[in-house]
Write a structure and sequence with these properties.
This protein has eleven helices and ten strands. The termini are far apart.
């Protein structure tokens, strides 16, 4: 009995000591898309805030783009479960589950869920060369010219791909546009501004400044209702208002660690995340870009996991309906 007690005490002390010693080196936020894009922006703003809530911590961002985000996710699923390599990812965690039938990891088994970060509406955009200024013009123009136009996205299973897929199937285009993949919507946005691509659907966190600057045209938002609270985006209709019944797409971001990361470290990270989500500076920066910082049960690891499980089921249906698979 005494031996058992000593063992338990040693274990408790080592876990405590382990958590107290954490972190022992910079923490890396892996972003599975190119630098400068919406997911990169969320990760960098979150790093800035979470640093304040983990003593002696330094958080760096590493971009590991490709395959709609699954390359970066695989990297973290296989990383050492010591709390120093984390993943900041979005709805792709759910969408790629339906699209890629040969994923290198199991989304609900190979990660520790550390809590959700934000919800981000999307905007339907066109290059300034497009001969359309309202959503109606835009839809009619695409209907008439789809075979000659292209749609940019950040890889199969990315948010921009999912939105393009959902919009084209919602408006029942006779012919789909040619899709052009990029390593993220940052490089895709440069191509849209340059007129090399015609259409893109992207997160407001990446589009607001380009719309404001007149460098791209915006036609609608993907949320169920218009964004009446946003100073710029309030002027754009929701796709539902434009007749696309039930169209409602918001991109959510979450934080993940490799499966097997010690519970004490996961708690340290979730505590720091929850403090960051209440940080007025972080909230202000996010809201300025049209993002809504999560403040419901999804900030808890279990709430986060339950939500993603439900999204996986929901999006599987959307993807099967569109009948497009990545492999
Ligand atoms: C990005 O950060 O580039 C985006 O989140 C990509 C996407 O999923 O559309």
């Amino acid at each position: 009995m005494k031996k058992l007690f000593t063992l338990a005490l040693t274990a408790a002390v080592s876990v405590g000591a382990f958590a107290q010693a954490y972190p022992t080196k910079p923490i890396t936020f892996v972003v599975p898309f190119a630098a400068g894009g919406p997911t990169d922006l969320v990760a960098r703003q979150l790093a800035e805030s979470m640093r304040k809530h983990i003593p002696n911590s330094n958080i760096v961002v590493e971009n590991a783009a490709g395959a709609g985000g699954t390359i970066g996710a695989t990297k973290v699923a296989r990383a050492a479960p010591d709390g120093h390599t984390l993943l900041v990812w979005h709805i792709g965690m759910a969408a790629t589950t339906g699209l890629y039938r040969k994923l290198q990891y199991k989304p609900l088994e190979d990660f520790e869920y550390l809590g959700m970060i934000n919800d981000v509406p999307m905007t339907l955009l066109g290059s300034t060369k497009l001969n359309a200024n309202t959503y109606r013009d835009f839809e009619n123009y695409i209907r008439a010219n789809a075979g000659k136009l292209n749609l940019a996205h950040a890889g199969l299973g990315s948010a921009s791909h999912l939105c393009g897929l959902m919009w084209q199937s919602a408006v029942k285009l006779d012919k789909s546009m040619t899709t052009i993949p990029f390593g993220g919507t940052a490089p895709a946005m440069n191509a849209l501004i340059g007129g090399q691509v015609d259409v893109m659907c992207d997160q407001t966190t990446n589009t607001t400044s380009q719309i404001e600057g007149g460098r791209v045209k915006a036609f609608a938002v993907t949320t169920a209702k218009p964004l009446s609270g946003h100073k710029l985006l309030k002027d754009y209709p929701s796709l539902q208002e434009m007749g696309l019944k039930g169209f409602n797409l918001t991109i959510w971001h979450g934080l993940y660690a490799p499966k097997g990361t010690p519970a004490a470290i996961n708690k340290t990270l979730n505590d720091a995340l929850q403090k960051a989500l209440k940080d007025p500076d972080f909230i202000k920066k996010q809201e300025a870009l049209g993002a809504i910082v999560v403040n419901d049960k999804r900030v808890t690891p279990q709430g986060h996991k339950d939500f993603v499980a439900a999204e996986i089921t929901k999006l599987k249906g959307v993807i099967e309906a569109a009948g497009q698979f990545a492999d």
